[in-house]
């Protein structure tokens, strides 16, 4: 049972595994490949998007600076005269109002002398005529028209930038403006990258120029604050690509892209937390994972059900064959799967039915063998039909034989001697009956009756019966020689007759015998009774049948018990066997 | 003595209401210290609330505010600051000038203070540096104190013929000396004579305005001082009554009928103080929040007042003005 259950489980496991994998592997392959390509696509999109965001942010910062330089350009359009220029002063004051980022303006004439200074904080000056031509800003603007200074922190906190612009000819002079970069905040804080992404600006040495959190900018040249921003820029620079990943000040992983601001040589970096940038990917991955899990669960369920349905008939078949094997032929295997299993179960059921029939027949044949010759029994067996044993009328030869003087002997002798004699006697007769395929219908004590030509008809039944009787006499006479040597006086006589009789099975339940009924049986019995020792008596029908083939001696008419008239009786001579003769 | 009794009563009442409040999760509390009464402060408070909202806080919903009003009696500020420091407040907002900031600073060295003032917080000793304030304070400073010399310049532009001006200072103000020094230097640069007048109480205002005619000065230049700023209505009324050209730090003055104002935009400074208070409530450290300087300095000119006074405002000034009232 242990081994059974183990094998059952193992088959179930195999089916389960195969079915499960058959569903899960394509599902997983599809899911994983989709996730992978989705990831690649999203990354490409993100790269492109962040690159665009960076360039757009740089353009906005550029726009902020351009707005200032465009306005400043208006102040260096006309050449300076020697007189104070009131009109230009009004322009400068108006410019201060229009561009809040400009803290103060210095206007210089063609010779580099300061003609005007207007400020939001300090006192204005006019016509101080201080020579400023050696100033870095003035020299820079004269050399390249537009000059940007280094970012510096006013009082270590507010980022300031000096911008100088020269006119298109020397006589219009130069304007130098101090710009408070804190006002880029309006621009930088308006740049949104996705939901939580942001942009910041670093100058060439890596000072923070602009950041949506103004307090970071106002910390000035604080190395600890600046380090993460520089690190991100460095990562992007080293990656060479548009987009790189780094960590922001809080240690969060960010995807970042950079774009240069050409004028002041700044870098605009846009950064987006990876959690958000890859949010759609993660969502897709979760979705795929969820679907895979659901798919696997479904596959598992499916595989379980299918494997159960596949192994259940096998289990039933197994159980059914076991029961049928144990002899329960009435057991039927019920499988309604409508497939090969059902067919197999049907053939098992047919087999069981046939086995039952077969066993039934075997039992019947076993009973028949008691009175039929083995050959006949085999025939009946082979034909699978005992119809041959049905009652009918046919021509038969009835052979009777018994011992002479047996009753006296049995009264005298010990039971052992009696049984020993009978045993030898029946041994010998049995062999001969079998040899001649005759049918033993009954025996009692020392007499027995044999039928020839029933139930199975044979060629020349009379001849066969005669030979049978002769061989019987020969064999028994041999035995008698031995018995007589031991002082027993026993003889053996045989009578046979041929004629029509009713043959068939008689009896009840399982106690059946095959027998013949008719005058021929009576006649044979009477002939046997009247036969002396060493005598074989036959009736006229036998004699007619074997005429010319076997020698018969007519013994004339003899009165037969039960017959009114005397009947012709024939004796059958036989040669005793040599050894027996010698013994006599 | 009576005041302390009153405070005890207030705190007792607060303690009585405390168990009731404890039913719902307690809101973080901002202690708000201001030198004036709520009415003149309304516009500032609105800006402060806007800033708080920018940081995600709305009074009554996720933050509670305890107000302490000095009602113009600046000597009450230290006691009010100490009271706030002793209460369960998450942050003290000291707004409306240096006196409130200094009072709060001396009241506590542990509670976070966000100040709003017009002076230089480093020069006043409130913080060590703008970029790294250190300690428990940070805040916002408008440029009002720094630009008082520009007021003299503007008056000189409007009245170029005047040989001198009178400067009004509040001797109790911690920034008075610095401003006067700057003004004297500016006067020297502009070639003007300067008369210094003092006023630290409202009754003194009358004397200031009435003395203009005797001093033979072109007009009055008010130094930056919250006491003056919050009394713009009164100053404007006096300026109209005595027909005196004057300039102060706050837009309230020309709006109320005065001639001009030049000073930092208080809506900006109060809003940023609100933002900082919110960020402190969100868990940020004051040492990480640099002191912010308000960049916007605004010039208001009331041309109606100018014509009443019979002065001509030059085009250069009008073109540079942020708001011209006609």
TrEMBL record, chain A:
Keywords: Cell membrane, Membrane, Transmembrane, Transmembrane helix. The keyword Cell membrane applies. This is HAMP domain-containing protein. Pfam families: dCache_1, Guanylate_cyc, HAMP. CDD domains: CHD (cd07302), HAMP (cd06225), PDC2_MCP_like (cd12912). It comes from Microvirga brassicacearum. Its main location: membrane. SMART domains: CYCc (SM00044), HAMP (SM00304). PANTHER family: ADENYLATE CYCLASE, TERMINAL-DIFFERENTIATION SPECIFIC-RELATED, TWO-COMPONENT RESPONSE REGULATOR. One of its GO terms (biological process) is cAMP biosynthetic process. GO terms for molecular function: adenylate cyclase activity.
TrEMBL record, chain B:
InterPro entries: ABC_transpt-TYRBP-like. Pfam families: ABC_sub_bind. Coiled coil: none annotated. Transmembrane segments: none annotated. This is ABC transporter substrate-binding protein. It comes from Microvirga brassicacearum.
């Amino acid at each position: 049972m242990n081994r059974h259950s183990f094998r059952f489980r193992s088959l179930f496991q195999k089916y389960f595994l195969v079915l499960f994998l058959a569903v899960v592997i394509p599902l997983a392959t599809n899911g994983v490949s989709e996730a992978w390509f989705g990831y690649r696509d999203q990354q490409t999109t993100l790269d492109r998007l962040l690159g665009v965001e960076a360039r757009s942010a740089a353009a906005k910062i550029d726009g902020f600076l351009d707005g200032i330089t465009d306005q400043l350009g208006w102040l260096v359009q006309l050449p300076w005269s020697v007189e104070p220029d009131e009109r230009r002063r009004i322009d400068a004051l108006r410019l201060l109002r229009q561009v809040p980022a400009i803290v103060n303006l210095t206007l210089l004439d063609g010779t580099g002398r300061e003609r005007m200074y207007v400020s939001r904080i300090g006192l204005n000056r006019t016509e101080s005529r201080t020579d400023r031509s050696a100033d870095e800003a003035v020299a820079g603007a004269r050399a390249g028209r537009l000059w940007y200074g280094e970012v510096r922190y006013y009082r270590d906190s507010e980022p300031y930038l000096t911008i100088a612009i020269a006119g298109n000819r020397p006589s219009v002079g130069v304007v130098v403006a101090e710009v408070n970069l804190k006002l880029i905040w309006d621009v930088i804080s308006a740049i949104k990258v996705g939901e939580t992404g942001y942009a910041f600006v670093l100058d060439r040495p890596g000072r923070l120029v602009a950041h949506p959190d103004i307090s970071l900018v106002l910390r000035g040249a604080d190395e600890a604050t600046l380090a993460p921003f520089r690190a991100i820029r460095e990562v992007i620079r080293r990656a060479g690509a548009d987009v790189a990943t780094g960590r922001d000040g809080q240690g969060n992983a960010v995807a970042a892209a950079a774009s240069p601001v050409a004028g002041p040589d700044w870098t605009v970096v846009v950064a987006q937390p990876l959690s958000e940038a890859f949010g759609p990917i993660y969502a897709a991955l979760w979705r795929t994972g969820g679907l895979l899990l659901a798919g696997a669960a479904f596959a598992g369920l499916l595989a379980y059900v299918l494997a159960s349905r596949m192994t259940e008939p096998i289990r039933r078949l197994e159980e059914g064959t076991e029961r049928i094997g144990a002899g329960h032929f009435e057991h039927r295997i019920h499988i309604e799967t409508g497939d090969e299993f059902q067919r197999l179960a049907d053939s098992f059921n047919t087999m069981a039915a046939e086995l039952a029939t077969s066993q039934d027949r075997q039992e019947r044949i076993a009973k028949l063998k008691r009175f039929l010759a083995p050959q006949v029994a085999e025939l009946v067996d082979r034909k699978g039909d005992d119809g041959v044993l049905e009652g009918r009328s046919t021509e038969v030869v009835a052979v009777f034989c018994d011992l002479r003087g047996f009753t006296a002997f049995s009264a005298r002798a010990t039971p052992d001697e009696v049984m020993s004699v009978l045993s030898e006697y029946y041994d010998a007769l049995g062999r001969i009956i079998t040899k001649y395929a005759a049918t033993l219908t009954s025996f009692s004590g020392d007499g027995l009756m044999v039928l020839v030509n029933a139930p199975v008809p044979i060629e020349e039944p009379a001849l066969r019966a005669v030979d049978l009787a002769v061989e019987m006499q020969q064999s028994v006479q041999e035995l008698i020689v031995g018995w007589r040597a031991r002082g027993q006086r026993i003889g053996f006589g045989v009578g046979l007759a041929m004629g029509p009789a009713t043959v068939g099975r008689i009896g009840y339940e399982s106690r059946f015998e095959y027998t013949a009924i008719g005058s021929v049986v009576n006649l044979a019995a009477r002939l046997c009774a009247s036969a002396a020792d060493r005598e074989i008596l036959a009736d006229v029908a036998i004699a007619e049948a074997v005429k010319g083939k076997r020698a018969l001696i007519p013994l004339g008419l003899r009165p037969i018990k039960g017959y009114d008239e005397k009947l012709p009786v024939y004796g059958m001579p036989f040669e005793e066997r040599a050894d027996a003769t010698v013994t006599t | 003595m009576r005041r302390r009794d009153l405070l005890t009563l207030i705190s007792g009442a607060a303690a009585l209401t405390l168990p009731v409040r404890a039913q719902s999760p307690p809101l973080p509390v901002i202690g708000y210290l201001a030198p004036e009464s709520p009415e003149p402060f309304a516009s500032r408070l609105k800006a402060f609330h806007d800033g708080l909202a920018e940081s995600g806080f709305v009074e009554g919903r996720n933050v509670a505010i305890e107000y302490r009003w000095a009602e113009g009696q600046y000597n009450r500020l230290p006691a009010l600051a100490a009271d706030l420091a002793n209460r369960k407040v998450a942050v003290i907002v000291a707004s409306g000038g240096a006196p409130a900031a200094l009072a709060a600073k001396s009241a506590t060295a542990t509670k976070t203070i966000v100040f709003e003032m017009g002076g230089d917080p480093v020069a006043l000793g409130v913080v060590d540096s703008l970029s790294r304030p250190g300690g428990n304070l940070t805040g916002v400073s408008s440029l009002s104190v720094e630009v008082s010399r520009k007021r003299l310049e503007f008056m000189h532009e409007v009245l170029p013929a005047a040989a001198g001006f009178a400067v009004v200072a509040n001797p109790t103000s911690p920034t008075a000396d610095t401003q006067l020094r700057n003004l004297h230097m500016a006067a020297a640069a502009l070639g003007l004579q300067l008369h210094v007048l003092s006023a630290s109480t409202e009754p003194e205002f009358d004397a200031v305005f009435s003395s203009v005619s005797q001093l033979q000065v072109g007009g009055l230049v008010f130094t930056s001082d919250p006491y003056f700023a919050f009394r713009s209505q009164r100053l404007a009324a006096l300026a109209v009554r005595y027909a005196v050209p004057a300039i102060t730090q706050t837009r309230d003055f020309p709006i109320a009928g005065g001639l001009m104002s030049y000073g930092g935009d208080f809506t900006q400074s109060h809003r940023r103080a609100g933002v900082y208070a919110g960020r402190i409530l969100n868990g940020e450290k004051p040492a990480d929040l640099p002191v912010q300087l308000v960049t916007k300095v605004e010039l208001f000119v009331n041309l109606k007042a100018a014509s009443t006074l019979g002065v001509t405002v030059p085009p250069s000034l009008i073109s540079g003005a942020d708001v011209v009232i006609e």
